[in-house]
User: What shape does this take?
Amino acid sequence: MQNKAIFFISLLLSFTGFLTAQDQVKDLKVRHNKGQTFITFKEIGVSKLPVKGSITNKEYKALFPRKSKEPKIRYKIYKSSKKITSTEGMKAIGSVAPNSAWNTHFYQKRLKDTSRFSRIVVEDGKQMLEVGVGIYVHNPKPEKEEKNWKSFYAVTCSVGGKEVLTFSAANSIETPVEEAEGQGEPVLQKSSVHKNFSYVKNATIDYFIRWEAPPNASRENFRFDYIVAHPTIKQTGKASVGLHLHCWGANLMGGWGWWFSQGKKRGNSFLISSNQVPYDWWTGYHELRYKGKKNQAAWEKGVVRPYSTQRTISFLDWATPKYNLDSERVFVAGMSMGGSGSAMFALRYSEILSWCVSWVGVHDPAGTAHFKGSYEGVYGKHGWNVKFEDGTPVWDYYSNEWYLRKYPKKEIGLIAFANGKDDGAIGWPQAVRFNVALQETKRPHIFVWGMNGHSQRALLPNGQSNIMKIDIKLHQSVPAFTNCSLDSDIGTGKLKSAEELAKAKASITKWNKANKRKRKLDKYDGSSSGQVNMYLIWKTANIVDEEGKWEMTVGLISKAPKGECTVDVTPRRFQKFKPKAGDKFDFTCTDLKDPTKVTKGEVVADKNGLVTMPKLVVTKNNCRIVLVRK
Assistant: This one.
C-alpha cells in the first residue's frame, strides 16, 4: 500500500510541474480514415509515466487534480492546404483540453471512485494511446467539389490564454494527408464476455467509441461510447436487434429495463446501447446548445435538430452489415428517460422500426411538470418560438399526441407502453392523452397502467415482459385494435372531486388497517390499474396482403378473463392492400373452431383511407378475418 502511494505521488509530481508558455506539443501524427482525420500529439509537461492499463477514478483524480488557480491549458488544431509555419490569418478548427486520451465519460452519472478508466484506442487492432497523448478527430469538408484532397495540420499549446506559436516538424506535419468527406466509423475498444449481463449469461459485448460530428451531433470531435451485445442463442441468418435507451442517471450498460429480445427466448437479439449526452431524452437539442449561454433571440433564429436519434440510426446503419442484422426486425426499448425516447423514436422513425416498448415515459414534454425544465434545457423555454428543423414548433413536434393527429396516415409499428397513475414526476394525464390519440387515430398499441409509480412495467403480446414472441417485421401488416370490450376504464386523466377523494381515502384507510398489503390513494378518475389491448394476439405466418384483399388470424390469449370479446380492427402497415378513401369492402370474422360463429358486414374506407371493421367477435379459439374490396 505504501509503495502504491509513493508511485502515484511520483506520477503526480512528474505531470503537474509548473508549466510555462515555452512548452510546445511534439510527436504530431495525422491519419485519415473514411471521412475522419485522427490527430494525435504529445501533450506538454508530460514525462514518460509508467501507467500501462486502466486506473480507478480515485487514482485518476490524484494523478490529474483539477486546480482552478493553475493556468488553463488548451491545444489548438490548425488546418491548411499548405504547410503551416505561422497561424497569421488562420483560425483554429478546434481545440481540446488535456488528458483527452482517457475515456472518463463512460460511466456518466454512475461514476464512482472505484470505476476504472482506460485510455482510448484510435485504430482497430492497435493498442490504446500512451499516457500524455492528446487526441482530436476532425470531419473535413471539401473547399471545392472534389472527392479527395490533401491537407496540412499543426497543433499548438495555449497556457493561460497565451498561445505558443512556434512550429517545427514536431507539431506541424511535413507531408499532407489525403482526405475525403464522410461520417467516420466506430473504433473497437475491446471485446469481453460477461458472466451475467442484464440477466443474460455469457454474453459477448463489443465496446466502441465514435467521434460524432454533424448531423450526428452539433459539433465535431464529440466522443460517444457504444456497445453491441451479441445474442447468446445461435443465429442461422440475419438477427433482430434492439436499440436500448437508458434512463436518467444510468449509462450504456443498463437502465433500459430488460435485454429485450424478439423470438422464443431471452438473448435472441443483438443489443445496441449508448450514453445520452446531453440529456435530451433521446430526441434532439438546439444547434446552439454548446455555443455559449442560452439566448432567446439567438435560439429563436436557430433550430432543434434530432442529433441523438440521428447518431443512433447512423450507428445502426454501420452495424447492420457488420453483424448481419435484420433491417426488418429492428426495435427500440427504454425506461423513464429512455422510455420517453423510445416511443418518440418509434413514431417519428417508423420507417426503420418494427415495434417499441416504453416504460414510464414522457409523451408530451410540455405536459410533465417535473421534467419540463429538463426539456427546456435542450429545446429552449416553452414560451420561446423555437422550431424543430422542419419548421414545426418544437414543443408540438415532440408531443406524441400532436404528432399522431398531425400525421394520421403515417404507419407505425406496435407501441407497447406503461405508465403509473401515481407517477407524479412523469405525469398521468399526458399518458392518457397519448393512449386516446393512439385509439382515435387507429394505431397498434398495448397500454398497461397501475399504482406502481415509476416502477410500472409494460407488457408485450402474450403477457410477456421482455420477449416479443410475435414475428413482427417492418414491411408486414399489423392490426390496430380499438374499443375492445375487455379494456379497462382508463378514465379521462382528470382529478377526482373533493367528495370522491374523501370517499376513496376512507376506503383505503379501512383497507390498510385490515391488510398487510397496503394500497395507495388514486387521485384520478378511472380504474386504478388496467390495460388496453393486452389480451389480443395475432398470427404473422398466414397474413394475406394483396391488392383489394386483406386477411389475418387474430385471437385472445389464454389469460384473457373471458372467452370472447368484441373489438374494432383496422389493418395498418399494409403493403399491397392500399385502400383509398370511399372504397367499399365486405368483411367476415370467423371462429376457427366454430365456423357458425361469424361476424360480417360492410365498411367504407374513411378520409384517410383507413378501413375499420367494427365490433368483431374475437375468441380464444382464434378467428380469421377476411376483408375484400367490393
